[in-house]
């Protein structure tokens, strides 16, 4: 029997009161809502006040050339309520040029590295982030490699090093 | 009696005559101190090789040291990503001559299945390599075979010629010190690999 988290209908209703109509999508008992990027940080603050105390993950999807997609980037926040075991997925869609959104580090300290990772790999800017540096790629790297318009084998970065020979020792 | 005057030199028991060069090579090949540059599953096999069942001590190469200054054999076990390569090169440069390198496994030798932007497609593009061990990961027996072959190479190619502390040009004459990769610079015009990758990247559709 797969785990099905408790319903979050009342939470979605109280969000809709403040941020307008929200159509939740439910898949196997797990609820997903979409928010406008401008509303998302305020909505996340409200959700934290409503008991979603744990930010499980922040990640991103690049919908370039994706069938039926209206926006380029889908930013995904996974929330959990550790008291009631409720779960909620929040999405905000962003577009080129300059995909950016307000940081949620003031709400969850743990968002710091999550946002740095999304910045590193997708190039989403998080305004108000205290230290928005690359997390996994080297500092001197210039591209955002998980974007779909970045070639899998890179642009020569992996072989841009000096060659050591026997006589260099 | 002087040695030169004797038509037949009688050696006492347990005394052998050899060349100093061969003696030094014999000492070196039987006391390789590996630098374990283990970054992936090959590292597990490397540990198994050093552990009691396969017992690398039989070949005098069990003394793994984590300081490059104490090592003379670098075993690169696992994939090397572009962020790690400068570290690898620095450790290689910090090892004292004479030094050797074993590229262990498919990833260290060619990049293996990781043909992506982050993974270096073979460490021999950037540091000299003496032995390649195939396998994904290789079994300890294969690594031991590479060490045996490297020992043969060390014995065959000699060490002391009086030139070891001499100029780089004279070192180049020794076979053990022949360059494996031709010198390339960061300049793409002299780096065919980089040129190919740049061309492939340019042909990639952009939005």
Short description:
The complex is a heterodimer of chains A (169) and B (207). Chain A has 169 residues and is an alpha/beta fold. Helices cover 20% and strands 24% of the residues of chain A.
Account of the 3D structure:
The complex is a heterodimer of chains A (169) and B (207). Chain A has 169 residues and is α/β, with parallel strands linked by helices. Chain A is built from 3 helices and 7 strands, in the order H-E-E-H-E-E-E-E-H-E. Chain A has a 5-stranded mixed β-sheet with strand order 1-2-5-4-3. A two-stranded parallel ribbon of chain A has the order 6-7. The longest helix of chain A has 12 residues, at 111-122. The radius of gyration of chain A is 19 Å and the shape is elongated. The termini of chain A are far apart. Chain B has 207 residues and is α/β, with parallel strands linked by helices. Chain B has one domain (20-181): Rossmann fold, CATH 3.40.50.12280. Chain B is 34% helix and 9% strand. Chain B has 7 helices and 4 strands. Chain B has helices at residues 20-29, 41-50, 85-94, 105-110, 140-157, 168-171, 192-203, and strands spanning 34-38, 73-77, 100-104, 131-133. A 4-stranded parallel β-sheet of chain B has the order 1-2-3-4. In chain B, helix 2 crosses helix 5 (140-157). Chain B is elongated, with a radius of gyration of 21 Å. Chain B starts with 19 loop residues before the first helix and ends with a helix. The chains are: A alpha/beta (169), B alpha/beta (207).
Descriptors:
heterodimer, A: 169 residues, alpha/beta, Beta Polymerase, domain 2, two-stranded parallel ribbon, B: 207 residues, Rossmann fold, four-stranded parallel β-sheet
- What form of chain B results from the Cα inertia axes? elongated
Question: How do the helices and strands follow one another from N- to C-terminus of chain B?
Answer: HEHEHEHEHHH
Mean pLDDT of chain A: 87
Number of strands of chain B: 4
Can you give the helix content of chain A as a percent range? Answer: 10-25%
Query: What is the CATH third-level topology name of chain A?
Result: Beta Polymerase, domain 2
Taking Cα atoms only, what radius of gyration of chain A do you get, to the nearest Å?
Answer: 19 Å
Sequence of strands across the biggest β-sheet of chain B: 1-2-3-4
The global form of chain A is: elongated
Instruction: Report the count of strand segments of chain A.
Output: 7
* Number of helical segments with 4 or more residues of chain A: 3
- The percentage of residues in β strands of chain B lies in 5-15%
**Overall SS class of chain A:** alpha/beta
Largest interface: A-B, 25 and 45 residues
